[in-house]
Amino acid sequence: MTHGPGPEERAAIDDLYASYLWALDTRDEDAYAATFFDDAELIEEPPGAPMTRDRGADAVRRFVRAFWSRHEPGHQHRETTRIYLPDPEGRSDHWAVKAYVFATEFDESSYLASVYWSGYYRDVIAKRDGRWGYVSRWIAGWQGDAIEGFTHR
Amino acid sequence: MVAVTTLDRLAVDDLYNRYLWALDGGDTDGWMATFTRDAEVLEDQPDGTTWRGAGPAGLREFIEKYHRDPGFPGHQHRETTRMVMPGTDVAADRISFRSYVFAIASHPGEPSRLYWSGYYRDVVERVQGEWLFASRWIAPWRGAVTRSGLTTRSEPEGELP
């Protein structure tokens, strides 16, 4: 018994997540923006910097341009360990999702890849007009809220 | 062998992912909830011995070893390459799996790094409609498994208890 989306929905959601990562890592701004709905919210907790929060199609494009300006090409992000949770607002065509993500970087001179970053996504996704997209995406390193279960020890 | 259905595979995906989030997030009770009540956990140790614990007390002893370790927060474990193995009996609500697992360690002020690479040998059982771990054997990627032809045999290093 699964409590998450059914097989066909999961396949379509897999495509959404893969499209996002390919667009991010190949610097395809239009494809990246197309994974979000126009009213989507994007929140980031960058390492060593304050959290940013913005909304809308222009904000999504500003976010990814700024990300690319801070990083050399060569990163690959991989998403794993996805958990589907009911939408906090109870909408039947929405899912809350949390997933691990890590990035590798490839050094062309040494031909060696290494882990660059490890974090997680907290997303709300929806299907609108037959298309799955991000309603919100929260990007954070593996710190803070993610490991708050340890704080009481 | 009865095939594992797509819906069962999705439910097992959810089980594995809940396990990893609970492990890495310090959610001891959430981790415990991924096992059957009489489940067993085995873990191969660096000195070559195998730690073994069973039932709620054994499981809790195992997970608290990690959840009380101040160096553990910051690890993320990722499971991939899962295979259904001989010994599976879907009609009896019992599936054997093998899969790869690796960990990335991220600590403030330090670069993230690959930390560990190994594999799981699991038996999952359906209890009241819910797939749960009945047995999990955690081992590093070394020794006999690296040359045992695991894909064609059910147990290269002895039967699971």
Written account of the structure:
The complex is a heterodimer of chains A (153) and B (161). By secondary structure, chain A is of the alpha+beta class. Helix content of chain A is 25%, strand content 44%. Chain A has three helices and six strands, in the order ααββαββββ. In chain A, strands 2-1-6-5-4-3 form a six-stranded mixed beta sheet, with helices on one face. Chain A is globular and about 50 Å long. The model of chain A has no long low-confidence stretch (mean pLDDT 93). A six-stranded mixed beta sheet of chain B has the order 2-1-6-5-4-3, covered by helices on one side. With 161 residues, chain B is an alpha+beta fold. Chain B is built from three helices and six strands; from the N terminus they run H-H-E-E-H-E-E-E-E. Helix content of chain B is 24%, strand content 39%. The longest helix of chain B is centred in the first third of the chain and has 20 residues, at 6-25. The chains are: A alpha+beta (153), B alpha+beta (161). The A-B interface holds A 1-4, 6-7, 10, 80-84, 98, 100, 102, 114-119, 141-143, 146-151, 153 and B 6-7, 10-11, 14, 16-18, 20-21, 24-28, 67-68, 72-74, 76, 78-80, 104, 106, 108, 111-114, 129-131.
